Amino acid sequence: MVTTVASARVETLASSGIQSIPREYVRPQEELSSIVNVFEEEKKREGPQVPTIDIRDIASEDREVRAKAIEQLKAAAMDWGVMHLVNHGVSDDLIRRVKVAGEAFFQLPIEEKEKYANDQASGKIQGYGSKLANNASGQLEWEDYFFHLAYPEDKRDMSLWPTTPSDYIPATSEYAEELRALATKILSALSLALGLEEGRLEKEVGGLEELLLQMKINYYPKCPQPELALGVEAHTDVSALTFILHNMVPGLQLFYEGKWITAKCVPNSIIMHIGDTVEILSNGKFKSILHRGLVNKEKVRISWAVFCEPPKEKIILKPLPELISEAEPARFPPRTFAQHIQYKLFRKTQDVQAPVTN
Ligand SMILES: [Fe+2]
After folding, report:
1. Among this protein's residues, is 291 annotated catalytic?
2. Is residue 358 part of a domain?
3. For position 51, which CATH number holds?
4. Three-state helix/strand/coil letters over 79-113
5. What pLDDT is recorded for position 132?
6. Active-site residue, from 185, 203, 235, 299
7. In what residue span(s) does the Fe2OG dioxygenase domain sit (predicted)?
8. Residue 163, domain extent
9. Partners of 147 in the beta sheet?
10. Is pTM beyond 0.90 here?
11. Annotated catalytic, 340?
């Protein structure tokens, strides 16, 4: 059930001067012990670190150079499923413009942003929004967001894109186009890494016409009790790939070898996640890592996530037959993308209702 609290903007709450957060934002007891000060965590230099992958050479003409670059990407995709991409080919200036435009949108008064509000109850999911409680506990996350489809062009609804600031549309359009090309490059390299034909994964996720790029700008206001809340709760991305920019305020944590690891802020990098879709196609060779977002008291955090998703119904996702053998049977049943999302929601509801049976 949707309560009034569930539809409030976190930004409104945060700027109201409250010293303690509403109970809907307080995480369950068992989760609280793992929530830490993100700035202190980000400073730590010991322990496992999210790998940094230089992808300048993954499309090199020189076969040896290319093979070496693909090997590094493969190792990171198998071990972590998340990495900082450097030399990704998207210009620093374009990234700066995307960030300036998104920040300017969120600096608009709330009433202005509300003009772009989504309406999840009626299925209008694009636009300005906040998470609605989707289970009996009413649990909420400390963030507002702006969400819209960014690519391909013929599937976009430009009436939903912000007209202020004026560079939002040009910057976001160009960025989506660049990321689409980057996605092809990465999918090609991952295909080769699996011993498949270069275009295989690209084709399996819908190709140029059907793969959807969804832009989600996450806005995490300062939180008076960051030790009790999460900006985004633990999840894996359902996408094929996700590309993330942020405003250099730490927050992302990865669940690696049984521990929460805080991602460092790497200048000029794009964070890339392997999502469930590629994990399924690769029969689990590539990993879709569990991750979450912390919030803090001192700085607003903004991140720009672009989810590259297969079409909801048109494609049945299942481990590619070449990757299955008697020794390595299929680890995932065939499901459409929509069915996969439903399955995850169902499983989560079960977890919430019967935590002791897990
Ligand atoms: Fe995510």
Report:
1. yes
2. no
3. 2.60.120.330
4. HCCEEEEECCCCCHHHHHHHHHHHHHHHHCCHHHH
5. 81
6. 235
7. 211-310
8. 2-353
9. 127, 216
10. yes
11. no
